[in-house]
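Sequence in, structure out.
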Amino acid sequence: MNQWMELAGGLGLFLVGIILMTDGLKALAGDALHRALSRFTRSPTSGAFTGAATTAILQSSSATTVAAVGFVGAGLLSYPQALGVIFGANLGTTVTGWMVALLGFKLELNTLLLPCILAGALAQLFGRGRWRAAGLALAGFGLIFVGIDAMQVGMSGLEGRITPDSFPENTWLGRLQLLLLGALITLITQSSSAGVATALTAVHSGALEFEQAAAMVIGMDVGTTATALFATLGGSAETRRTGYSHVVYNVFTGIAAFLMLLPYVALWQWWAPGAIYQQAEVALVAFHSLFNLLGVILVLPLAGQFARFMLWLVPEAQEQFTGHLDKQLLKDPAI
């Protein structure tokens, strides 16, 4: 029972850390975030770079996509401008996975970062202006690694009791079930980063095989679209197109990632037999980054067609009395 409490508490600390760091970084960015999203989204390609960079800085793809949806609703961004941001957001969020895999597991910074939490809390309590925001971000950063350590302790206590056999089998059907489980976890936690950290901890401790963890991570990428979807409720057609674009794009990316999972494993086994299971957490974040990068590379040349598809899927509401009139009549308003 204590191990489960440790695992749940670690996940909670990780989530609180992500929330605090995101809030602090958003406050630090201030109007610069608005200016960056408006200035560097002239094309889908520049928008994708901007979305990836913004998400990497804020450590939250949900924050980026919800901001894009809000800016479209407020008229600060057009739908085509926001489309690139949506494409790039998923790529930026993979930075969190690299941070967890390389710093959380390899360097184990949790003890070193404890003073950072105190320093951040003091800056938040006694600082002014940007120092308070920086303190919030610093405390959140430290809490992330304390949470990772607590999850590792909890997971190690469950060693032998939770094994890959405790989850759906490593088959096509089993991996599909794990994909749905990953989406559900993200819907509950409202953070794909927390889900990915949990999957990394599980695969690091041997509770999950690589293929099982990878299927869950794919599902988490799909599940993260729920936040943007909720942000579109009651919005205009352009707002809904922006939110729905995130859903459609992530679903297509998830399908492609699911199909490329076994070829990815086979490539690792050909290049370095057994390495994918010995360095499973690194291989997992590499897979997460790879399928998101390939998704962006493949969709950018088709951004125009994608936009037209979304225009067809979410048409502009027509006025009851004038919607069906011929546009040529605009030349003679008296008619």
